[in-house]
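Proteins fold reproducibly. Consider a sample protein:
=====
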Amino acid sequence: MALVLPAVGRRVLSVGLQALRRLGLRPTELNSYLSLSAASVKRYVALRDGDEPERLPRRRLRKEQEEALFLYWWDVIAGRKPLAPVAPGRRLLDAFCPICLHVPRPEARTRVGANDDTEPTTVAEALATGARCCLAGVRPCVQGPARLAALVTWLDVDARAAAAHLERLRPDPRGLWVRACLYCDVPMVVDDAEGDRIQRLCERHAHRSA
């Protein structure tokens, strides 16, 4: 996909991709998560000023960390709908934001905001500016990488393991999410029609924790 982005959108994308690069994701991995050319990804993940990516040993996710990643996708991004992070024609970070996933793209792109000329330099600034870009109709999504970088940092999880886990999330064929109890492998059905509370414990463990 060729990038036709305003300068501020390119900067948001660059901040997010560089953050993920520092968290240990390789350019080839990042390229598999975005519908961008390998040359574009390579250009945006170039680190400067002697900044080196972290090379920590890959850590396996604990069950509660996997649940936290699922809850973020299900509640924050998917809007409690049975939508998988990866769908036909869409890679993980193509729409890793509720705006690009749910809000129709405007017929014409509008200006990003009053402070278009303010370049974001941190992930937090990239998220704020990126949200304005997405609302203004800038596509492809420029804030997906920054969202993932902020999420894995907040949860203190391995970025590569987290991205791989999110890619594997799939709803049940019946249109429901089936989750395992936090303490055992008993399946729990997540159905938004039943209310807004997710039952994360089976009956036996829910009784013990009461």
